Amino acid sequence: MTMARTLTGESDTTGTDTWTDTGLAALEELGAELARRGRRTMILTGGPRPRLEVLERSGGARRARGAGAAACAVVCAPGGDGGAWFWWAWADRIAPAGEAALAADLVDRALGARTAA
What we know:
Shape: globular
Low-confidence stretches: 1-16, 61-67, 113-117
């Protein structure tokens, strides 16, 4: 698998650990789905919320400038409807967290033109 996971080891007593675990599990599922489609991903947990960095496609030729740079970041957060959603880093919804395949389709489609070799 082409995912890496960095954990901060932080915890608190506010119940956010449960949400963080739920969000991490959803991001791991999305990362695995994107990896099956040839994307490289990495989960980062430093900062206010874990995020999935979606990188260029693995295998193909890399661009000389910016090779290895993240193409986008995806977070998993509450959606206001009581459910968890995947969100772009700029706060637009992608898909419900339980629909990793749909989210992967949308992420891959959105990044396709920008990361083509």
